[in-house]
Amino acid sequence: MKKKIIIADDHPIVLHGMKQILLSDENLDLIAEARNGEEAVELTLKLNPDILILDLDMPKMNGLEAADKVAKSNPNTLIIMMTAYKDEKILNTAFKNGVSGFILKENAIVEILACIDNVVKGKRFISPALTDILLNQNKAFENENPVIGISSLTITEKKILKLVSENKTTKQIAEILFLSPRTVENHRNNICKKLSISGSNSLLRFALENREKL
Length: 214
Fold this sequence. Notes:
- This protein is an alpha/beta fold.
- It has helices spanning 12-23, 37-47, 63-73, 88-96, 108-120, 128-136, 146-151, 155-165, 170-177, 181-195, 202-209; strands at residues 3-8, 28-34, 51-55, 78-83, 101-104, 125-126.
- A 6-stranded parallel β-sheet has the order 2-1-3-4-5-6, sandwiched between helices.
């Protein structure tokens, strides 16, 4: 069955390019277009798409606000956000607001289909350029020796950290390890305490940076 998609962007050139890519995939059905955040939310409530692609900067309501409203009202709609900004704070807020995929506009036409494929499978997708930001920004963790920190983890915690490095969500990790999502969250919190890291994406950043040690 085709995945129903709504795309919201107030830039005609970007919108046209994205439409051509989406229409080229026989597994996707572009059912509506929005030119601002309010319209995107209204269309999502009315049409209940599988995927909503949002631009960050839009009139009337920005992408972050629209994502938050959609995530609360239509939790089954997967949200992908496009932005021109390589900003970790925006990335953190986007994921907090229910976004599953985050891509840079400069790479959107190249990355959108891969992004859709990942989020449909329950994975998060981040533009490779933004993954570099996660690896390079705020490297001054309190734990200066990650090998020592990792060695303090239990076997289960190490398994969870490895799955985090593979961009697995809490729900996916719970299913893979036959644990409850709450138990996985408790383990994630314990891992952060042992590694002396904090912040909404700090565990993912640490896992990516130390993937070869896991």
